[in-house]
TrEMBL record, chains A, B:
Residues 171-197 are annotated as: Disordered. GO terms for molecular function: DNA binding. Keywords: DNA-binding. Coiled coil: none annotated. The keyword Nucleus does not apply. Residues 7-77 form the Transcription regulator PadR N-terminal domain. Gene3D superfamilies: Winged helix-like DNA-binding domain superfamily/Winged helix DNA-binding domain (1.10.10.10). This is DNA-binding PadR family transcriptional regulator. Residues 176-189 have a biased composition (Low complexity). The lineage of its organism: Bacteria, Bacillati, Actinomycetota, Actinomycetes, Propionibacteriales.
Amino acid sequence: MSLRHGLLGLLAEGPASGYDLARRFSETLGTIWPAQHPKIYAELGRLAADGLVEVESEGPRRRKAYRITDAGLAEVKHWLSEVDVDHTMRLQPLLRSLFFWLMDADDLQRHLAAEARFYTEIAEQYRQYAERKDRGEFGNSPQTQSMRVAIEAGVRLYSALADWAEWAQTVPPAKPAKSTKPAKSTKPARAAKPTTR
Amino acid sequence: MSLRHGLLGLLAEGPASGYDLARRFSETLGTIWPAQHPKIYAELGRLAADGLVEVESEGPRRRKAYRITDAGLAEVKHWLSEVDVDHTMRLQPLLRSLFFWLMDADDLQRHLAAEARFYTEIAEQYRQYAERKDRGEFGNSPQTQSMRVAIEAGVRLYSALADWAEWAQTVPPAKPAKSTKPAKSTKPARAAKPTTR
DNA sequence: GATGGACATGTCCTAAGGGACATATGATCG
DNA sequence: CGATCATATGTCCCTTAGGACATGTCCATC
């Protein structure tokens, strides 16, 4: 249920419409926390029903801007300070890496090179963003300060992944256990063992 | 739909039961790709219906071991080489970091210290696992070679996060825009601007 | 031989994610 | 003035995730 608190956190900066919030998610937050507009509108409705946000104004084309209420602010602060962090990571690239041994050496090298390029590029984007902030381009409000901290995480994470993908290209492909030794051959599906225990 | 391919990948190493697979997810894979047993049994059923796996043997207590079929192996290889990688990351800790400005300085320091401890510990676990592999404790099969590559990613990712959390503790908390300058005060909810554009 | 515990598989139900589609409205420009 | 585009909000529906609960089975041990 982090989307709920994500929305509250964004609204703590000031009123915004569902459209605004959806843009922020798709433009900058998308890499660390994806959220499509259907979910956002639905959640805003629920938040309003629960009294955590309220409609601040109705704008030009049906635009509704929401403002966080005191209850909403209390809720997001409570979440930040009292609720356990969920450290779950769901990284498909890492899951795939477990199965690299199923790939041709060529395909694998291509794959890793593409991954390295991808991560390097994202890391670079975050780095530039960080620089602009450090040059004072976005002011020095508490919000942008926190943004700076988040960006730093992006830089470090994606740099680490880029380095990893580079490094992985240098790992020699393990031969499918052929000529290394006489190889006690019959061990016919090692993971099988119908372990009763 | 990565669980499907995750299961196929694991079964490519050799036959296993739903219980075995669930344990592998909860013990070692849980950090990078969580999966509970209800999903696993359901997906195994679907995989069997689609002919990508088949029941290899029935063991002691209703135990059913599944074996990957040729079609299943082809499917997972196709996924690895041809299907685009999903780079989506969903990191609650990073989402939270955007809202650090809403926290007391004390709470934030406590939070960051706990985060640093957590990431350091996980990184250390991965590091030890990598060492054991490098000492040859797990042999040198292609599978364990790939495992080694995945572990390396874990080491680097969690080290990066640990360093980040340490670094973040040194970032001075931005004062809520008070005494820094005369401060053109009236700019009443900067994010509001009912942008019609 | 009864009982408790680890093994093993499964269902049920609700919530969350997300693609596809629908619709209203104001702005722009020929 | 009519067409078209970007803005803005929403619904529908299917899939995936995951907590809670239920059941069966073999083993140890008292």
